[in-house]
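Question (not urgent): is this output format expected?
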Amino acid sequence: MREIGRVQFVQIQRSSLKLGNASHEYYDPAALLRSDHLAVSAAGAFAVMPDESYIVDIHNAMHPHTRHNRDSDNGLSVGFTSHYQAMRERFGAHLTDGIAGENIIIETARRFSLADLGDQIAFQNPVSGQVIRLNVPKVAAPCTPFSQFCMCQPDLGGQPLKETLQFLHNGMRGFLVALPDMPYATINAGDRMLINDEFAEGGA
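Got this back:
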């Protein structure tokens, strides 16, 4: 497997980032919480705090208001600093790394599509050498509230909304990662992200 970047930071969503009601939803990133360590299991993700306590991600099946959906494999997500740079160039400086809510942010200079990543990614602790392998089922589709947040236009609609959604699709907004049945494992800031060139279509 080949390294494509390092984990810049990990984070969880303590509660939903889409607020409001059906007639007027809006995006608010205030519920994001960064950490140096992310504990993951088949149920989903937990932030590991400095006092070694755990805070549950909203997509974890154990969260009291869980948004976990096993059919959609939405228990964990990965984003890239290169994608955020592209978003800042289009939308502005408020699109800071991780603000879309991905659990794992990878520092890398190039952009990635689903084909580039292949069917499986891995994270390796550079000290212990431990490797965690995860399946990549699909891209994280952008939503209207986040698109409006990007454009700083709460009533964005029509063709401008369509163009924004198209730009954020195909992996720009990140990727959903399937969590297999597994014991607890930890993904840390500084870990190496690896892909298998045998299955990935894109080059380095």
